[in-house]
Every structure is written in C-alpha cells, then in structure tokens.
Design goal:
By secondary structure, the protein is of the alpha+beta class. Helices cover about 35% and strands about 25% of the residues. The chain has 3 helices and 5 strands. The chain has helices at about 55-65, 65-70, 75-90; strands at about 10, 20, 25-30, 35-40, 45-50. The strands form 2 sheets. Strands 4-3-5 form a 3-stranded antiparallel sheet. The chain has a two-stranded antiparallel ribbon with strand order 1-2. Helix 1 packs antiparallel against helix 3. The radius of gyration is 14 Å and the shape is globular. The protein starts with 8 loop residues before the first strand and ends with a helix. The relative contact order is 0.19.
Length: about 90
C-alpha cells in the first residue's frame, strides 16, 4: 500500500481554478495594511493566491481582484514584481 503525499491545492482569486500551491504565489496584507508578495507562504495576515501566470496577473491588475480580495490598495509596483517573478520562473 503506497501512501501518496497530499498536494496542497489553492484557488486562484483571478481565474477561480484550483492549482497546486507550488504553481501559485501568495499575496498577503498585514495588520498594518501593507501588501506584499509572500514567497514563503508563512507570513501572517490575509492572503490571496494568484497563478504564476502572466495572463492571470494582468487580469488581476485589470479587474483589481487583489485589492477587492485583500481589502487594501495595491501599488502598481506589486504587479510589476509579480510579472518579474513569472519571468524568473520560466527561466
């Protein structure tokens, strides 16, 4: 009997699809209201997951999905950082 390790799944706030946590990036809003990219997945605060996909990130920016989900203002630089992250993942 083989015990397969359960893969943690998360739902993308933009596309609504469930994906393995490793294929997502977590954005977190701290108690102070600061929004940042949480690469460890362990920062405390309200989190939202977005697919590590250029289209999903651009859609999130266009729809303002992260701002609504996290109830915080999202700086344009955050989306640029996310897009940079996607580029690095593809290399």
């Amino acid at each position: 009997m083989s015990t397969r390790k359960k893969i943690p799944m998360r739902k993308c706030v933009v596309t609504g699809e469930m994906k393995p946590k490793k294929e997502m990036v977590r954005i977190v809003r701290s108690k102070e209201g600061d929004v940042s990219i949480d690469l460890t997945g362990k920062k405390s605060g309200r989190g939202a997951y977005v697919s590590l996909d250029r289209e999903a990130i651009l859609a999130a920016q266009k729809k303002d999905a992260l701002a609504r989900h996290l109830e915080a203002k999202i700086e344009p630089g955050l989306y640029e950082d996310l897009l940079d992250l996607v580029q690095k993942e593809k290399l």
